[in-house]
């Protein structure tokens, strides 16, 4: 996620990002991140990668929508493409919190 975010920032600053047409560089990064999440989801026994993959797929779908309907306003495209990063971070945060080992002396409540 960090690599994808930093790469997107570099591409957006290097080539400019008006969000008025398909952002090919950002789309390529999002596709690469999607494949990384799919790989992680298939190898993991946790739920958070599945959620993060689904949210990344939605972000890629926004780019696909722009290819199909280029009349989408820049505001809608930019907001839709960026929005899904927040639920992905939330999935990561929840997954990290649930994976934390128990503190010494802390017991799991049963029943």
Can you characterise this structure?
20% of the residues are buried. This protein is mainly α and 111 residues long. It is built from 5 helices and no strands. Helices cover 72% and strands 0% of the residues.
Q: Strand-residue fraction?
A: under 5%
Counting helices, strands and paired strands, the structural category is mainly alpha
Contiguous runs where pLDDT drops below 50 for at least 5 residues: none
Reported for the largest beta sheet, the result is: none
The shape, in one word, is: elongated
Helix content: over 70%
In short:
The protein is an all-alpha fold and 111 residues long. It contains five helices and no strands. Helix 2 (24-43) runs antiparallel to helix 3 and helix 3 packs antiparallel against helix 5 (85-99).
Features:
0% strand, 5 helices, elongated, 111 residues, mainly alpha
Secondary structure elements and their pairing?
Layout: H1 2-15, H2 24-43, H3 48-68, H4 74-83, H5 85-99
